[in-house]
From TrEMBL:
<dbReference type="GO" id="GO:0008176">
    <property type="term" value="F:tRNA (guanine(46)-N7)-methyltransferase activity"/>
</dbReference>
<keyword id="KW-0949">S-adenosyl-L-methionine</keyword>
<comment type="pathway">
    <text>tRNA modification; N(7)-methylguanine-tRNA biosynthesis.</text>
</comment>
<comment type="similarity">
    <text>Belongs to the class I-like SAM-binding methyltransferase superfamily. TrmB family.</text>
</comment>
<feature type="binding site">
    <location>
        <position position="140"/>
    </location>
    <ligand>
        <name>substrate</name>
    </ligand>
</feature>
<dbReference type="InterPro" id="IPR003358">
    <property type="entry name" value="tRNA_(Gua-N-7)_MeTrfase_Trmb"/>
</dbReference>
<keyword id="KW-0808">Transferase</keyword>
<feature type="binding site">
    <location>
        <begin position="210"/>
        <end position="213"/>
    </location>
    <ligand>
        <name>substrate</name>
    </ligand>
</feature>
<dbReference type="InterPro" id="IPR055361">
    <property type="entry name" value="tRNA_methyltr_TrmB_bact"/>
</dbReference>
<feature type="binding site">
    <location>
        <position position="172"/>
    </location>
    <ligand>
        <name>substrate</name>
    </ligand>
</feature>
<feature type="binding site">
    <location>
        <position position="61"/>
    </location>
    <ligand>
        <name>S-adenosyl-L-methionine</name>
    </ligand>
</feature>
<dbReference type="GO" id="GO:0043527">
    <property type="term" value="C:tRNA methyltransferase complex"/>
</dbReference>
<feature type="binding site">
    <location>
        <position position="113"/>
    </location>
    <ligand>
        <name>S-adenosyl-L-methionine</name>
    </ligand>
</feature>
<protein>
    <recommendedName>
        <fullName>tRNA (guanine-N(7)-)-methyltransferase</fullName>
        <ecNumber>2.1.1.33</ecNumber>
    </recommendedName>
</protein>
<keyword id="KW-0819">tRNA processing</keyword>
<feature type="binding site">
    <location>
        <position position="86"/>
    </location>
    <ligand>
        <name>S-adenosyl-L-methionine</name>
    </ligand>
</feature>
<dbReference type="InterPro" id="IPR029063">
    <property type="entry name" value="SAM-dependent_MTases_sf"/>
</dbReference>
Amino acid sequence: MTQERTPIQRKIRSFVMRTGRMTEGQKLAMDNGWPKFGLELGDGRIEPEKLFGRDAPRVFEIGFGNGDSLFEMAQQAPEKDFIGVEVHTPGVGRLLHHILEAGAENIRIYKEDAVEVLSDCLPDASLDTIQLFFPDPWHKKRHHKRRIVQPEFAQLVRRKLKSGGTFHMATDWENYAEHMMDVMEAAEGFENTAGQGQFQPGRPAHRPETKFEQRGKRLGHGVWDLIYRKI
């Protein structure tokens, strides 16, 4: 008798695993910095107060890229603790290099799927801010299901934010900005800090302008920021 196999459902990822060459400095930073500043999905649920040695406002950033803007934010707000997630290894190495060079203590890093980290590693109602800056827009219509901002994700964000905490998104793709708006305006438990159906009037002061963003502006690209508060 042949046993029927249950088909394995492949998880839809909102990102592409990209390989990239690390510099010698980034490799050294990974070797020296990861044991202290790196976090693993397999370690399970964290206790932020023990992790940072204090109870402070906490910011969680999804996809920090090369790490420059996250590092700048952490340097400008030493009273806050930052947890960043990025799957691109050279970006992780670059951020660790910044951290070691500056002696920063208020940043920790995951090199994992951010959705899994949020779901499995962050306690509920533990974050003051969740940031999602310039995620992959998956601009082809057949790929829109890969966009990270979906109704289910909005409710995961809501669960992890403290009451009054904020979800800050930014994109330079107008279609994705409209998609974000549609999802978040319909999401239960949020209010738009700019007013219903409105984008932020400009780049919020706490979000550094990246080189990527500056290049886009020179090419005439717009940037849309959205900030939703958990109510």
